[in-house]
Specification:
About 40% of the residues lie in helices and about 10% in strands. The protein is of the alpha+beta class. The protein has 2 domains: about 1-65 and about 110-255, no CATH class; about 260-335, no CATH class. The radius of gyration is 26 Å and the shape is elongated.
């Protein structure tokens, strides 16, 4: 993990390029005359550590959020499609659909397509670079950058990368034989276990050929330390057996620590601190909500006598609490009793 710099003025892709160009012993492949003799060959971006490491940069730039929404739109007219108040997590939507697992797999395939494409092109670029510089034993490093695509969380990226690195051909050899490891640099999530500082993910995921490759492992440690130094921040090491989104939060979540301005937002925060409806079974909770909403409807119907403001405020607060609990559980409002 690297802490967030307060002076981040350049885009991530540009800064990473300047970082590699600043390292001692780095060769910029595009500047090598050798490649002019082979114009049809693909090429990686950098050579490092006496050409023992070939580096290819890939930035995740196309936001696949729209693909998720397009897929969900196909199912919204279905009878079993749930009704929610406000936004809801994808997993809580799909759990109400009998084919939710298949839909989730389709969505995952679409949102991670850019990662797969990065592996396909990087493997070819590293392969051709090995041939051109006559260094077949060089390690290939794919550096994957995610600056602001929130749907591609650290867990999703890490899982997809692990799949690509483990992929094999029919003869049992690695499908992407020239990508030894992948280095993920994200600047849209932070490590939640370090609340005293905004630690940004810097994650290395090794493929099978990196096992027991101690020299390459040391080089990767050096690169991460130098990256932190380049950004003027400390390197914080965290031993995570498995990358999970439970360990990270979007940077935009930091904004929630700012005092809220509306009464409803204050009530939402209050409920998250003290969830008074948590012990209610699902059916009882939905029945309770139905009664509150009906009470509100009667008080605001045409010709109804308006109750005192403190009564209305109490009802509004109870409705806010109800919807907060419903959203936390992912309950379908269509199941509310009529």
């Amino acid at each position: 993990m690297t802490s967030r710099s307060n002076a981040k003025t350049h885009g991530l892709n540009e800064r990473v390029k300047r970082f590699f160009s600043s390292l001692s012993g780095v060769e910029v492949v595009d500047e090598l005359d050798l490649f002019s003799k082979f114009p049809d060959r693909k090429r990686a971006d950098y050579l490092f550590a006496n050409r023992r490491v070939i580096v290819e940069l890939k930035a995740l730039e196309a936001d696949p959020e729209g693909k998720v929404q397009n897929e969900l739109e196909k199912h919204k007219e279905r009878k079993e499609y749930p009704l929610f108040y406000g936004k809801q997590e994808l997993s809580k939507i799909l759990k109400h659909l009998p084919d939710g697992e298949k839909i989730n797999a389709d969505i995952y395939d679409k949102v991670t397509r850019s990662i797969k494409q990065s592996f396909r092109s990087s493997d070819k670029q590293i392969r051709d670079t090995k041939i051109t510089i006559d260094c077949s034993d060089a390690n290939g490093l794919l550096v994957l950058l995610n600056e602001d695509i929130n749907i591609l969380s650290p867990e999703i990226i890490a899982y997809s990368i692990s799949q690509q690195l483990a992929k094999k051909d029919m003869d049992g050899t690695a499908h992407y034989a020239h990508v030894t490891s992948a280095w993920v640099i994200s600047e849209n999530y932070y490590y939640r276990a370090r609340p005293e500082t905004v630690a940004l993910p810097s994650i290395v995921i090794d493929g099978p050929s990196a096992v027991n490759n101690h020299e390459f492992s040391k080089i990767l440690d050096i690169l991460q330390a130098e990256w932190a130094k380049f950004n003027g921040v400390p390197l914080i090491k965290a031993e995570l057996g498995k990358i999970s989104d439970n360990d990270f939060l979007p940077l935009k979540a930091l904004q929630r620590d700012v005092p809220q301005t509306t009464r409803q937002e204050q009530w939402q925060r209050q409920y998250r601190t003290n969830p008074t409806l948590r012990s209610m079974p699902d059916k009882e909770l939905l029945r309770y909500g139905r009664n509150i909403i009906e009470m509100m409807r009667k008080n605001f119907s045409v010709g109804a006598q308006r109750p005192p403001d403190f009564v209305l405020m109490k009802i509004q607060k109870e409705i806010t609490f109800f919807f907060e609990e419903v959203n936390i559980r992912g309950l379908n409002l269509k199941d509310m009793p009529k």
